[in-house]
Amino acid sequence: MLTHNGTKTIETERLILRRFEYTDDTAMLKYWVADEKIQSLYSEPVYSTKEEVKELLDKYIDSYEKPDYYRWAIIDKNCGECIGQIAYFLVDNKNHFAEIEYCIGSEFQCRGYATEATKAVISFGFEEMNLHKVQICTKTINKPSKRVIEKCGFTYEGTLRDYFFMNGEYVGRHYFSILRSEYKRND
Hints:
This protein is α+β, with helices and mostly antiparallel strands and about 190 residues long. The chain has a single domain (about 10-180), classed as Aminopeptidase. It contains five helices and eight strands, in the order ββαααβββαβαββ. The protein has helices at about 25-30, 35-40, 50-65, 115-125, 145-150, and strands spanning about 10, 15-20, 70-75, 80-90, 95-105, 135-140, 155-165, 170-180. An eight-stranded mixed β-sheet has the order 1-2-3-4-5-6-8-7, with helices on both faces. Helix 1 (about 25-30) crosses helix 3. The two termini are about 25 Å apart.
C-alpha cells in the first residue's frame, strides 16, 4: 500500500527540491519555461509572460492540497534560483508505481543536476511513498535525458515506436524502470 504525505522538501549536495512558490516565476522564465527546445522535449507548452507562468504556478500550488501530488522546484544552492522541475506526474495507487518527469534549464545541463535530482526523487518514492516500481520515459531524440536515466540505474523496458509527431516527423518513446528489489539507496 502506498503512503502519501505530499511534496516534501528534499536536500541533496547541490540542490534543494521543494514546493513551487510564486517567487519562482522570474527564474522559471529565465531558465526553462520560455525555452522552446526544453519544453518540447517533455511535451509542454512554452510560457513567455509572467501571467502565463502565474497560471502554471496556480495549477502547481493548488495541487499541493492533494496528498498524492508530487512536484518539486529544483533550486540550485549556488544561485538560489529555480533551474528546473521534477515530478511524479503519474501515480498509480492500485499498482504501486509512479512515473518521473523532469527538466533542467539548458544553462545547467550536462552538470549532473538532473541525475542528482532524479536519484533523490527515486529514493523518496521507495522510502517515503513505498512504491514497488518507478518508471521514466524519454523521447528517442533526447540523448542527454537517456544518459541521465542510465546513470540513475533504470532498466530499459522497450520503445513505443512513432509515439509523437514533432516538427513533421515521428519520434519514439523509450521506457525504463526500477523495481523496489533493484533499488540501491544512494548513501
